Amino acid sequence: MKTPAPSPQPSTGQSPPEESGPVPPPSPVGRVFGIVLVVLTLGGMYWTFFNATMSSGYVGTQGKLVISKCVEDHKESRSTRGGTVAYQTTCHGTFRSDDGDVVDRSAQITLSKNGADSEAAKKVADEHAGELSVNRAGNGTLSITNVESVANYLCGGFFFLLVFAYGFKCALTGSFPKKGIGPSSKQADQLIPKPLKATEEWLWVIGGIGLVLAILFRLAVGIFGMATLPFQ
């Protein structure tokens, strides 16, 4: 009588292959999470790309903001053991366009100490600069005309685009970062409608390539000290 041959065992250090089970249905939590991400990142992209455009000086009205006063806003900081630290500066003054046609005597601009306008904030806070080179939008909003600001805002804009792509995927498939809620990220790929699959892929491609190029541009600005963009 022949003894049955033993079933093959996985080699040492290897786990048995997992059988692919059915794809879980979309999670309502994942869909809501994705929609929230999409809405927030749309606002973030508008803000960063708008400011990048204005900081470039290619659009809007270029001129000078003659500063009359600056006020610092403070927030609590753990590093100062219960004290406060200045995180942004709002400067008031008179804007005058380079051609003299536009004068706004109640102009103001808010500069973040740790954001894209950190260099300008440092000038007015530490060096007590009396004027700033700015660009004025049609609604009166002022932006710093600075290549460094352009690069910083572009980095932020393309990062928001990547987060938007992820939120877009979650909104379509109900995927959620926490395991056990809705389909996983790989499983979600099977749930994306074919007409929208290419859109989702292009969002990742454009966001990824754009962020890499923006970071390289930012590094070039720091290394070569570019003051203005070409054709200005």
Measured as a percent range, the helix fraction is 40-55%
Strand segment tally: 5
Class per helix and strand makeup:
alpha+beta
Radius of gyration: 26 Å
Count every helix, treating DSSP H or I runs of 4 or more residues as helices. 5
Task: Note the main attributes of this structure.
alpha+beta
Task: Report what the structure shows.
With 232 residues, the chain is α+β, with helices and mostly antiparallel strands. 43% of the residues lie in helices and 21% in strands. It is built from 5 helices and 5 strands. The chain has helices spanning 28-56, 118-126, 147-173, 185-188, 194-224, and strands at residues 61-76, 84-97, 103-112, 131-136, 142-144. A 5-stranded antiparallel sheet has the order 3-2-1-4-5. Helix 3 (147-173) packs antiparallel against helix 5. It is elongated.
